[in-house]
Predict the structure.
Amino acid sequence: MIWGGTGLAEFGYTLTSGRVGECWGVSAHKNGCCTVRGGRYDGRRLDELWREEPALFGDHADNAEFPLLVKIIDAQDDLSIQVHPDDAYANVHENGAMGKTECWYVLKAEEGASIIIGHNAKTPEELRAMITEGRFSDLIREIPVKAGDFFQIEPGTVHAIKRGTMLFETQESSDVTYRLYDYDRLQNGVKRPLHIDKSLAVIKVPFVPMHIEPEVRNAEDAVITKYVDCRFYTVYKVEVNGAATIPLSGMFHTASIIEGEGYLDGSLVKKGDHLILSAGYGETRAVGRFTAIVTRV
Ligand code: ZN
């Protein structure tokens, strides 16, 4: 990615270039499908397991495809100002693709870092005028960001991650992005395409800010924070410092270790690992000192 860097190396990943923007930690998307490492399903692709071993994932008759995508994003430079469609729009205009609702847990932010969420246009006419006249600094709503912040980005929300920020992202399994503005940058000598008409069709006007109120509870030596519970996913942070039994719902969960190391039911887990706890797993015994982001459908 033209905005990527080398920050993801701290998770123990081998980087293929000096500008790596994203790790797709749990994904069955056709643009980057994960393979299981270790255990009974070693070497199997996640998209294949989703189709062939449905019992691992519980009842998912509604979803032809694995519904979640979890990522770690390292922004060494500004990402384009963008917007995503919802499921209904993407289904019609993007060959049956899913829309994209996403959320961000901020892992790191440099001093003075900011992100873009929302816009200042009051009417669709004003939005169109500001975009066609290139008045992006008036249009966008930029806010300061620090480690530990959490944001839910609904479809139709203008947004951009800016330089100096590392995020953990949970989203619908979609790769549909409409670019409004890319700072006139060049990639291999050419500007990346913009999608002004589609952006104008999906941006919600006016922008209504969304307030996240985290719900915190303790379970023995663990602190469990629930950030968001929407139609597509529920996202928690689990901080273990000692030993704790973590209750899970009957659905499958993804768990990504973002800091530290320890054991889950006797298996070593460490920063940079991504796991799937299959449907009906029940509860897991966590021992050690680590932090995980846990997501379920
Ligand atoms: Zn996005």
Residues 82, 84, 102, 159 surround zinc ion (CB under 6 Å).
